[in-house]
Amino acid sequence: MGSQIVIKVILLVVIALVGLLIVWPGAGARRTALRRIGLLCLTFIAASAVVFPQISNEMASFVGVGRGADLLLYGLVVVFIGYVIATRVHHNRIDNQLTELARSYALAAAPKPNEPLN
Amino acid sequence: MADEGREAIKANNADVWLVVPLYNEGQVIGQVVSEAIETFSNIVCVDDGSTDDSAQLAREAGAHVVRHPINLGQGAALQTGFDFVRMSPTAKYVVTFDSDGQHKVEDAFAMVERLRTEPLDVVLGSRFLDGRTRPGLLKRIVLKAAVGFTNVTTGVKLTDAHNGLRAISVEALGKFRIRQNRMAHASEFVGFLRKAHLRYAEEPVHIIYTDYSKAKGQSLWNSVNIVIDLWMR
Hints:
The complex is a heterodimer.
Chain A: H1 5-23, H2 28-51, H3 53-63, H4 68-109
Chain B: H1 2-12, E1 16-22, H2 29-36, E2 43-47, H3 54-60, E3 64-67, H4 74-86, E4 93-96, H5 105-117, E5 122-126, H6 137-154, E6 166-169, H7 170-173, H8 185-195, E7 200-204, H9 211-216, H10 220-232
Parallel strand pairs in B: 1-2, 1-4, 2-3, 5-7
Antiparallel strand pairs in B: 4-6, 5-6
Helix pairs in contact in B: 6-8
């Protein structure tokens, strides 16, 4: 059981990295590039897990997890959490933009404060 | 004589704007505007995508109406109202005033007078400073818990954090921007007091719990949503 500390540390580090990547301020190009590299890596890992299932099994026993399928499941959970947070951040940004858009439309359509009514 | 006094008060309040967030209050908004306009000639109702005739009724009662094309929430409506008032070259004070008839115009008037005479940027209404307002036990517990939460998270000491009646100088409006579109804007606003170094005071006000406002009142579930909104943004 004590050997599972390896996988726990790995998972926590990956979660922390995902979180850091999401809240990293500024630099739009760098963030986009990092996100794309991450997705490419993910695709590569997924493809190799399909073609060489024994690799995931070996990786699993190396980090102290029973089977390769379990390791993949853990990976999926981490990726999913990252996806949820990233979607939330994106959603908030769209929300803010929509608010500002609706607001400027509303203000443009209404008579100005110093204009008399009617 | 009484009319002359009324006119003098109205003329004196020409630099004040009432900002009234409006969402499906067709039953009461006409009366609320007609009553308030006796004291404050400038009223802007921000219609937040109402599906009833609220906007029309507010306009007929003499208010300016700004209409959100879609429903955004009360916090968003307040900020739209602030942006509107800031377009006026003569506005000096705004009062945020609820559309459901639970605020008293006299209280709003007294709060603006304090802004005029005291070195303050913001005067906040509090229903717990005197014994006039009598919320039910459950409401009292929820409101007190909300005050405690807001005080702990913002570091500002208030007796009533979720009162919609506030008077703010137009100058202070330029120092913050409400981003909480929904109900969490009240706590967000308390945070601004500290972050923007606004000088503030509380004023005892009377909240009228009519059957109508009780039926529409904030549910306990909403306080859960407010905490989560504040945390997620």
